[in-house]
Design goal:
The complex is a heterodimer. Chain A is an alpha+beta fold. Chain A folds into 2 domains: 379 residues, no CATH class; 45 residues. Chain A is built from 9 helices and 23 strands. In chain A, strands 4, 5, 7, 14, 16, 18, 19, 20 and 22 form a 9-stranded mixed sheet that branches. In chain A, helix 3 crosses helix 4 and helix 8 crosses helix 9. The N terminus of chain A is likely disordered. Chain B is mainly alpha-helical. Chain B is globular, with a radius of gyration of 21 Å. The longest helix of chain B has 21 residues. In chain B, strands 1-4 form a two-stranded antiparallel sheet. Classes of the chains: A alpha+beta, B mainly alpha. At the A-B interface, helix 4 and strand 18 of A face helix 9 of B.
Chain lengths: 452, 313
């Protein structure tokens, strides 16, 4: 097992509009840092790893640059250009989801039936290395140099961090203050540095207005994700979503707590219109309750199916495109794209691919080490799923059962409001007000009745 | 001189009074304190942390562990018979092992306890039972794993407090192997942090591992499977620390501590040959280094007896 990587984005040329990805964004003229969730897909099996880095860089291509520590020297064939549509599909498939149920007519005896799930993803969702002689004096070796797609790539090894820092600066990379200290541990561990910038000619040739994901494959026992380099000049917490594709079971971190998000709660119906806000508040609250020291599991499922589906499972070819190299290409029973909320349709068995979606918000203080993973043998499915229950629309006087039904609905709505307030940290009064609940009072402060 | 005689006489009376007060048999056994500490850790983990542990798994672990111990009694010569060790093993397995089914825990517990009767050398069992049970489960049973990161900093700190409290209460001299191991292992981690130029918060973060705590004070310290002599225990601690470090930071594998203790078990007979010493007995009060002083009065009493013996000699 072994995947190791770590990234930092740095900028090329003059100190203006530059953004980094996989860790942090840098705003115009070094002004503000915008929090954003970086997305990484890690396919890992038998000490072989394929890492795909989503590139949602929005600035001038000429100023994009990326540094990723990697455990081995990557040759040209080990670096590939990915398809960002696959990220979108994987994201959609594994998103935290909202499920709706409609209460049946209490006057009839019938079994409640799931009406399906609407889901929305809340997605917080270098210059030329030609001067070899100069590089040598700095203790930096250019191990490989090639162009893949729209990227010019250089693989560096270094003897000391100050030499590497100088080399990067001399070659037009603008690296953050403090990079020296962050680079040092990786150099001491004999890691190499994958440095990429955009080849403008090749980029124009693609005709695309965006930069495509970078992928690289390597063999190493390290199964980890370097996050420390991205913290160099971060001014606040950063979000990272890691999709881990493995053969046998759920993935967790071995050096931090891995916590499953609260799931399965009934929440007020009005949340259906603002699921994004709900999920943001809920995630913030969970981060706070765990002192920003935990990694959160959002989804664990066999890639063959889903229930309910926020998005269809990926096909074998699509999984292969994300680096799942151990999957043979024989056609499976992968979902019939019929609009059903459950894939696959009857037939077919489990696929030897488990997806674990981890979401981590980290800061330099609370995550002093890089993330180290292990694949467990746990095959229990998990999804962050929240439930809306729509009340029956009939009359209270329709039958004798209707009266007790509506009493029950009122009680239920009170519980849903309390659950929502607890999950999100919103005040119960606000929730009751937004939910339009009448006859349900917010709990009074303990001192309220002393002198009244 | 007379004063001293009077004082000696007075202290003799006190000693006699102290001896008249006897702890219940179970409390005089250090394993009782271990069970108490492990029980608190398990409760902390179950209530304040998502240990992904089902109550049924704990119950099955105990049922299988105790039943196997009972079945194995005819195979062992040790007297008096006690279930305390089996309880400790069951608690350790509940704390360490995770599974997505119900059969892993009881099988692991049964293999752990039966390993005491199967793998023996010079009338000592070779493997710490919990270590054997975990290794057996990880390699032979489906759907199980260890979650070393699930403790969290606050629970780990509480764990250190409990363990240190236990050691103070017990004054167990066999803790030398625990301290030696922590010295070697944490020292190696500190050197690594310094060499890599990492922040010291990395080192303190590595300390906050419940698995490390459990290992140092409840597994490597097992006097029944560790070397009999102090020199042997120190050597063993160094070997285990070296293997664990290499496993984690050279081979980049997980569960280095458990694997190290399992692998190094083969060297215990070597240490016992190089540095011979009497075998440990949980309930023996024969003046071995493993004798547990239950109170300061007892400790003083023992010191005074030794002084008198020296003077008489």
């Amino acid at each position: 097992m072994l995947a190791m990587l770590m990234f930092a984005a740095i900028t090329l040329g003059r100190p203006h509009d530059a953004r980094a990805f996989c860790g942090f964004y840098v705003g115009k003229a070094d002004a503000t840092l915008i929090n954003h969730a970086s997305q990484v897909v890690v396919a890992h099996h038998d000490d072989k790893t394929v890492i795909s880095l989503m590139n949602d860089y929005q600035g001038e291509p000429s100023e994009f640059a990326l540094v990723v520590p990697v455990p081995v020297i990557l040759q040209q064939g080990q670096v590939h250009i990915g398809d960002r549509e696959l990220f979108r599909k994987l994201d959609s498939y594994s998103s935290p989801r909202l499920v709706e149920y409609f209460d049946p007519d209490p006057c009839e005896i019938m079994r409640p039936m799931a009406m399906g799930g609407a889901s929305m993803m809340h997605r917080q969702a270098p210059a030329d290395a030609s001067n070899q002689a100069e590089a040598k004096t700095l203790g930096v070796t250019v191990e490989a140099e090639y162009t893949v797609g729209e990227y010019d790539i250089v693989i560096l090894s270094a003897k000391e961090s100050s030499g590497l820092e100088t080399w990067l600066q001399q070659n037009g990379y603008r690296i953050p203050l403090g990079a020296n200290r962050a680079l040092e541990p990786y150099i001491r561990q004999d890691m190499k540095f994958f440095v990429a910038k955009v080849n403008l000619t090749e980029h124009r040739r693609t005709g695309l207005t965006y930069l495509r994901p970078l992928q690289f494959a390597f063999e190493s026992p390290k199964f980890m994700l370097p996050i420390r380099l991205g913290m160099i000049n971060a001014q606040g917490p950063q979000d990272l979503v890691v999709y881990l594709l493995t053969e046998n079971g759920r993935v967790e971190t071995t050096n931090y707590r891995t916590v499953k998000l609260p799931t399965g709660m009934d929440i007020p119906e009005y949340v259906g219109g603002e699921f994004g806000d709900f999920y943001t508040a809920m995630f913030n609250q969970q981060v706070k309750r765990n002192d920003m020291r935990a990694v959160f599991t959002e989804y664990v499922w066999n890639m063959e199916w889903c229930d309910p589906c926020a998005g269809p499972p990926l096909s074998r070819e699509e999984l292969k495109g994300l680096g799942v190299f151990w999957l043979d290409s024989e056609p499976g029973a992968m979902g019939v794209r019929s609009g059903s909320m459950i894939y696959p349709q009857p037939g077919g068995g489990p696929l030897p691919v488990m997806l674990t979606r981890l979401h981590v918000r980290y800061s330099a203080d609370t995550f002093p080490e890089d993330l180290v993973f292990q694949e467990t043998q746990d095959q229990e499915n998990f999804q962050a799923r929240y439930v809306l229950r729509h009340a029956w629309k009939g009359s209270r006087d329709a039958c004798s059962a209707a009266k007790s039904y509506f009493d029950e609905v009122n009680r239920r709505r009170g519980q849903e409001a309390e659950a929502l307030a607890d999950l999100t940290g919103w005040t119960i009064g606000d929730v009751i007000k937004k939910a339009g609940l009448r006859g349900i009072d917010a709990p009074k402060p303990w001192w309220k009745n002393i002198w009244d | 001189m007379d004063d001293s005689m009077d004082e000696s006489s007075a202290s003799g009376t006190l000693r006699a009074s102290a001896r008249e007060f006897t702890f219940p048999a179970a409390l005089s056994d250090p394993r009782t304190f271990q069970i108490f500490s492990l029980g608190i850790l398990l409760a902390l983990g179950a209530w304040f942390r998502d240990f992904s542990l089902q109550p049924a798994q704990v119950i099955l672990t105990f049922a299988a562990g105790l039943a196997t111990q009972w079945l194995c009694w005819p195979l062992t010569s040790s007297k008096p018979r006690s279930l305390l060790s089996a309880i400790i093993t069951s608690l350790s397995l509940s704390l360490l092992l995770r599974a997505d089914n119900l059969f892993v825990h009881p099988i692991a517990a049964a293999s752990a306890i039966s390993s005491k009767s199967i793998f023996r050398f010079r009338d000592k069992h070779l493997f710490n039972p919990a270590t054997f049970g975990v290794i057996f489960a990880l390699n032979c049973l489906p759907g199980c794993w260890i979650s070393p990161g699930q403790w969290g900093q606050d629970v780990a700190i509480a764990g250190w407090v409990i363990v240190l409290g236990m050691l103070v209460t017990q004054r167990a001299r066999r803790a030398d192997i625990s301290w030696a191991f922590l010295g070697f292992y944490l020292g190696a981690l500190a050197i690594r942090v310094a060499y890599l130029g990492q922040r010291w918060s990395v080192w303190t973060h590595q300390l906050s591992s419940g698995a490390l705590l459990l290992f140092a004070f409840f597994m490597i310290s097992d006097p029944m499977t560790g070397p009999n002599s102090r020199a042997g225990r120190i050597a063993h601690a160094a070997l285990v620390a070296a293997i664990a470090y290499a496993w984690q930071f050279r081979l980049y594998r997980t569960n280095g501590l458990i694997w190290a203790l399992f692998i190094a078990a083969a060297c215990v007979p070597l240490w016992d040959t190089l540095w011979p010493a009497p075998k440990f007995n949980w309930t023996q009060n024969g003046g071995h280094d493993e004798t547990i002083a239950l109170s300061t009065t007892d400790a003083r009493d023992a010191d005074v007896r030794r002084d008198h013996a020296r003077q008489a000699a």
